[in-house]
Amino acid sequence: MAAFGLVEKEYASIRGVAMERAAFSCARTFTLLKDAQLTRRASGLQLAAPPPEYTVVFLLRVLPETPRESFALWQMTAEDFQPVLGVLLDAGRKSLTYFNHDPRATLQEVTFDLPEVRRIFFGSFHKVHVAVGRSRVRLYVDSRLPRAS
Fold first, then answer.
1. pLDDT digits over 88-102, tens only?
2. How far apart are CA 135 and CA 119, in angstroms?
3. Inter-residue contact 59 to 31 (CB < 8 Å)
4. Which option is the CATH number for 42-149: 2.60.120.200, 3.30.230.70, 3.20.20.70, 3.10.50.40?
């Protein structure tokens, strides 16, 4: 959180971020308002060749007023701000899409829209875990692998 300036003394300088006290503790929570964008320069990463296996984990809550069009929940961009890899959230279709560009710059993507995935769009907090392997991508919702119906 601190890497993005989400600390008590700095959050006010970030457009679209609100800080609140947690209901049952003295901890602080940060709410990203509509059109908020958190960016961080990642120097030293070789975006042309990400590691063969990696994980992206989110704790998120999708509110009813979330835009219906697809948007990047998380992404890495090249120097020219063109997306290289990321996770898209589509509240209209109630799906998550993981995408990346392979070393030949070919777009690869997989969309998850099973019933277990759709439940993240109903206003509760959920842990979403995207596990990228050498030959497949798995999505876990609340530490469970969704099953095809």
1. 999 999 999 999 887
2. 27
3. no
4. 2.60.120.200
